[in-house]
Amino acid sequence: MEHTVTTLNRPDQDFDIRLRPSRFSDFTGQEKIKERLELFVEAAKARGDVLDHALLSGPPGLGKTTLAYIIADSMESNIKCTSGPVIDKPGDLAGLLTSLERGDVLFIDEIHRMQKTVEEYLYSAMEDFVIDIVIDQGPNARSVRLNIEPFTLIGATTRSGLLSAPMRSRFGLLNRLDYYDAETLKKIVERSARILNVDIEPDGALEIARRSRGTPRIANNLLRRSRDYAQVKADNIITEDVASRALALLDIDDSGLDEMDKRILQTMIEKFGGGPVGISSMAVSVGEEPGTIEEVYEPYLIQEGFLQRTPQGRVVLPRGFGLFGLKPGNTQQELL
């Protein structure tokens, strides 16, 4: 099957592809979603039908792209991949849609970032498999309707709340991926280690899993770094102690928090008394984009009880204060 990628390749893409499961049976975690998708795929194939459009939402690195590829493989279809920001003109979308064959999968990552004018062209494509292209401008303008082959659109988003209601309503299959627990991530780390021919002990795999923020992509990246550390300093064997030392070198603590996580919490405590503080003020204070804080750092901090979103702004919870030996109401300056 042809897998056409229209986005730019990442430097670690070969690594990701090697570790990416190609079948539902190889995909670890997200059991309800996996069972649901597998059933719908089987039913569509049995009818000789095209799978309904699917929306995959959730934080980055949980397997949305991997599931899109597995769906395409299971449907014995080609897949074409792009992302919302890349499609900046209706003509770009028309070119993609008219190149699809019956049953093909079009995967759009970050679909919530698609421009409104482009998004509206998708409505008729998703519902009736037609697109209306406006040719020329002014008095000579005319609309041409193009028929396209029935296809499956799989959209991935880290911020489903930014999707418009008309777009969301056109997806028949809505699936939200959640963070993984440590035991599930341990299985993923052990599978990846086998593929990479890395010698890892069960306790070493669990240590990596515990600090992976509930995210397979992070677990695989930490496995790579632990492999490098073991190669240079530990005879190529990742034990619990080796994994712990490797992750300490990366400034990743026992809770999986990295330097930026702790900077966000510490800045909120020291400069804003623990909050409430708005996302814009927080972003300026830590030198990071608001969108990155909202999509990458906040979900895990909220999930683990370090941070809370309120109508007034972000607030550090007692566990966040405890990370620095503080209690709510006490800032670093007050202790000094």
List its traits.
Arc Repressor Mutant, subunit A; 6-stranded parallel β-sheet; 47% helix; Helicase, Ruva Protein, domain 3; disordered C terminus; two-stranded antiparallel sheet; 336 residues; 15 helices; 3 domains; Rossmann fold; alpha/beta; disordered N terminus
**Unreliable runs:** 1-11, 332-336
Largest sheet: 6 strands, parallel
What is the CATH fold-level name of the largest domain? Answer: Rossmann fold
What is the total tally of β strands?
Answer: 12
**Would you identify the CATH architecture of the largest domain?**
3-Layer(aba) Sandwich
Give the radius of gyration. 23 Å
Distance between the termini: 64 Å
Q: What spatial form do the alpha-carbon principal axes imply?
A: globular
CATH superfamily of the largest domain: P-loop containing nucleotide triphosphate hydrolases
Q: Which CATH class of the largest domain applies here? A: Alpha Beta
Query: What class do helices, strands and sheet pairing give?
Result: alpha/beta
- Helix share bin: 40-55%
EC number: 3.6.4.-
InterPro entries: AAA+_ATPase, AAA_lid_4, DNA_helicase_Holl-junc_RuvB, P-loop_NTPase, RuvB-like_N, RuvB_wg_C, WH-like_DNA-bd_sf, WH_DNA-bd_sf
Organism: Tichowtungia aerotolerans
Enzyme class: hydrolase
Description:
The protein is α/β, with parallel strands linked by helices and 336 residues long. The chain has three domains: 3-176, Rossmann fold (3-Layer(aba) Sandwich), CATH 3.40.50; 182-249, Helicase, Ruva Protein, domain 3 (Orthogonal Bundle), CATH 1.10.8; 259-335, Arc Repressor Mutant, subunit A, CATH 1.10.10. 47% of the residues lie in helices and 15% in strands. It contains 15 helices and twelve strands. It has helices at residues 13-19, 31-47, 64-74, 90-98, 116-128, 165-169, 182-195, 202-210, 216-233, 240-249, 259-272, 279-286, 290-303, 318-322, 332-335; strands at residues 3-5, 54-57, 79-83, 105-109, 130-135, 142-147, 152-157, 173-176, 199-200, 237-238, 307-310, 313-316. The strands form four sheets. It has a six-stranded parallel β-sheet with strand order 1-3-4-7-2-8, covered by helices on one side. Strands 5-6 form a two-stranded antiparallel sheet. Strand 11 and strand 12 form a beta hairpin. Helix 7 (182-195) crosses helix 8 (202-210), helix 7 (182-195) crosses helix 9 and helix 8 (202-210) runs parallel beside helix 10 (240-249). The longest helix is centred in the C-terminal third of the chain and has 18 residues, at 216-233. The chain is globular and about 70 Å long.
